[in-house]
Design brief:
Number of domains: 3
Strand order of the largest sheet: 1-2-3-6-7-8-9-10
CATH superfamily of the largest domain: Aldolase class I
Helix content: 25-40%
Shape: globular
Structural class: alpha/beta
Strand content: 15-25%
CATH topology of the largest domain: TIM Barrel
CATH architecture of the largest domain: Alpha-Beta Barrel
CATH class of the largest domain: Alpha Beta
Radius of gyration: 27 Å
Number of helices: 22
Distance between the termini: 45 Å
Length: 666
């Protein structure tokens, strides 16, 4: 197998497939990376091989021959653009769900429960081993018949074969448990069966941990020895190395890490294995920038560098590099919004790229408008406003962008106020660099009003003014500071602080950590069952780890009902959400309240009666990617739209996607 470059997108499942088959949406998602110049697209993350595999993450079902034509379509589309493709074959073992798909029991080497997926597995018997070995072989043959260039067998992510390898999970006392020889036995049997089925001239690789980072689990030295034995078996062609294992929630946050972990956090593990094996070694874990990728290759740590989330953020990364357009690469910031959504069973989208996963309707390269140039005025330079300005300028229009602050970024400025969240500033930084290159007239330190907007004689006005902090709707809210007050420095932290988080996203935990790092004694109360309920399994563990290390007390299931002064203190009344006749009081120096935002929409309502659409949008048409324009006031001077939190409290991706789907048609 010859690969045109050393860029690799590792197998993952973005929940785009339908009924276990690669959908057109999925194929276009992978095809866009091939168009963008990637060398190897490893597809079919955790493709199922057996009837007991569950498909709650939208995986491909590779367990019967009906998948072959879909493989043929996928491979031909990628080959057309010069990319090589493989499929990852997986049995999840105890990480499957018994209550989805075919409602069959889960299987594992031992019957102990899996902490995250929470299944109680059946301990495998002799006939289970034989059936699953053959399922792997049959699934590999289907890949070959479908024109796929190779298969990768998952020995990582604590799926079935790693469950046999790991002494933390495998408690068998027969020939499949105990010694390393015994724990490796099932994996070698699977590889032998697969190799016999597909032949010697077909690529077979494995994905393996370099260290489980788990007490009583596989350490680095044992992983090196396992790699050495697999490499000398003659059964495999490459090893793809990851770090950590998702045994629990903190392990999940490490194996698929956010910005919480540093760049290339586990590259040393891959390097340690490469030094001991005579096979190509791949690696992917938070390698998101060109300099790190070049170092990993030039210094001989790996043979191919996996930049999976980097290509989610910008599938044209390799092509832009080849064309000398490094500054145009939209670099992944490590928000992990994509993976968090997948783990929750939702489709993967990128926090800053509204086109990813929507290639059938949204452009990665915005085309010039066929219509005459228009004058577009955007008010507000947060992520939504910056994207509106960028897309409008890409269309060839004359764009003015007003921002009342002295810097762009909006709420991302506050979101990055604790050190580990600073990479989020990369979102507005890239957008600002693009609008400057495109010639957008950016006017910082200018709080635009309706008269100023009208003076520009616009054809289109986009209101991206964001929101104002909302403390919530409880008695005595006027006595509270907001998270914005604290993070912006407008209000100094108190000594003893209660923070009430009724939003459930990042802002509450970020503000709580900010307070604690400045010496405050902090308690966070939330009416939800847990703090940060809106955050996914790759993100909330990082927030909780930092808060607990900082000594923050977390109280779930309690809603703030009232705040009143008593002397020089504040009394906060908390009500139990489930036993609602139970209340508790906290006597503190400061109460900080977080309840999202309310739209900052004064300028919108001032301009609304002057617009041709009166601010209206045909939402059915917008959702269908059709002409969404409304003419409600033929005498109006301009079209008027709102995006992001100026419309309603949401998140960065919503603001950026609002702007892309609206402005691509200007």
């Amino acid at each position: 197998m010859t690969i045109r470059n050393r860029f690799l997108s590792t197998s993952h499942q973005p929940v785009y497939n339908e009924s276990g088959r690669p959908s057109e949406r999925y194929i276009r998602y992978q095809e866009e990376k091939a168009i963008g110049g990637i060398g190897l697209a490893q597809c079919g993350g955790a493709t199922g091989i057996a009837p007991e595999n569950s498909y709650h993450y939208g995986q491909i079902d590779g367990s019967d021959d009906s998948v072959i034509p879909y493989y043929q379509e996928l491979s031909s589309r990628l080959h057309k653009h010069g990319a090589v493709c493989t499929i990852q074959l997986t049995h999840g073992g105890r990480r499957e769900r018994w209550d989805s798909s075919n409602w069959l029991p889960t299987f594992a080497p031992s019957s102990r429960r899996e902490p995250v997926h929470r299944s109680f597995p059946k301990e495998m018997e002799e006939f289970d081993f034989e059936r699953i070995r053959q399922c792997y072989a049959d699934a590999a043959v289907r890949c070959r018949e479908g024109g796929i260039d190779g298969v990768e067998i998952t020995f990582a992510s604590l799926t079935l074969i790693e469950q046999f390898l790991s002494p933390a999970v495998n408690h068998r006392t027969d020939e499949y448990g105990g010694s390393l020889d015994n724990r490796m036995r099932f994996g070698l049997e699977v590889l032998s069966r697969v190799r016999k089925a597909v032949g010697e001239d077909y690529v077979v690789g494995i994905r393996l941990p370099g260290d489980e980072l788990l007490k009583e689990g596989l350490g680095h030295e044992e992983c090196v020895e396992i790699s050495r034995r697999f490499a000398t078996s003659g059964l495999i062609d490459y090893i793809s190395v990851v770090g950590a294992t998702p045994h629990d929630y903190i392990g999940t946050a490490k194996i698929w890490p956010s910005m919480w972990l540093p760049s290339a956090a586990f590259l040393h593990l891959a390097s340690g294995i490469k030094a001991e094996v005579d096979l190509p070694v791949f690696h992917a874990t938070r390698i998101v920038d060109l300099a790190t990728a070049e170092r990993a290759l030039a210094d001989g740590h790996v043979d191919m560098v996996g930049m999976t989330r980097a290509f989610i953020s910008d599938p044209h990364f390799p092509r832009k590099l080849q064309e000398g357009r490094v500054d145009d690469i939209r670099q992944c910031v490590g928000a992990t919004y994509c993976i968090d959504r997948v783990v929750a069973g939702h489709d993967a989208v990128c926090i800053q790229n509204g086109a990813t996963g929507r290639e059938t309707t949204m452009p990665h390269s915005v085309p010039k408008a066929e219509k005459p140039k228009r004058k577009v005025v955007v008010v507000g330079a947060g992520p939504g406003g910056l994207e509106a300005a960028r897309v409008s300028a890409e269309r060839g229009h004359d764009v003015v962008l007003f921002e009342r602050g002295e810097a762009v970024g909006g709420q991302t400025i506050l979101a990055g106020k604790v050190a580990w969240r600073e990479p989020l500033s990369g979102v507005p930084r890239w957008l600002e660099s693009q609008i400057k290159k495109l010639g957008v007239d950016l006017r910082l330190g200018v709080e635009a009003d309706a008269a100023m907007v009208r003076a520009e004689k616009p054809d289109v006005v986009v209101i991206a003014t964001g929101g104002r902090p909302n403390p919530g709707y409880f008695k005595g809210a006027e006595h509270c500071a907001t998270t914005w007050d604290i993070l912006s420095g407008r209000v100094e932290p108190g000594e003893n602080v209660l923070l009430h988080d009724d939003q459930g996203a990042e802002t509450g935990p970020v503000a709580a950590l900010f307070l604690a790092q400045r010496g405050a004694k902090v308690e966070v109360a939330t009416p939800e069952r847990k703090l940060a309920v809106e955050l996914g399994e790759c993100t909330f563990p990082a927030h909780l780890a930092e808060l607990y290390k900082a000594g923050v007390v977390i109280t779930a299931d309690h809603r703030l009902m009232e705040v009143y002064p008593e002397g020089n203190k504040l009394v906060a009344v908390l009500r139990n959400e489930y036993a609602q006749d139970m209340e508790e009081e906290r006597v503190v120096d400061q109460v900080v309240a977080e309840h999202g935002t309310v739209p900052n929409d004064d300028i919108y309502f001032a301009l609304k009666p002057l617009s041709s659409n009166l601010g209206d949008v045909n939402l059915l048409a917008l959702a269908a990617n059709e002409d969404y324009r409304v003419t409600a006031n033929p005498e109006g001077a301009f079209e008027l739209y709102r995006v992001g939190d100026a419309l309603t409290s949401r998140n960065i991706h919503a603001a950026i996607y609002d702007s892309l789907r609206l402005c691509k048609s200007f």
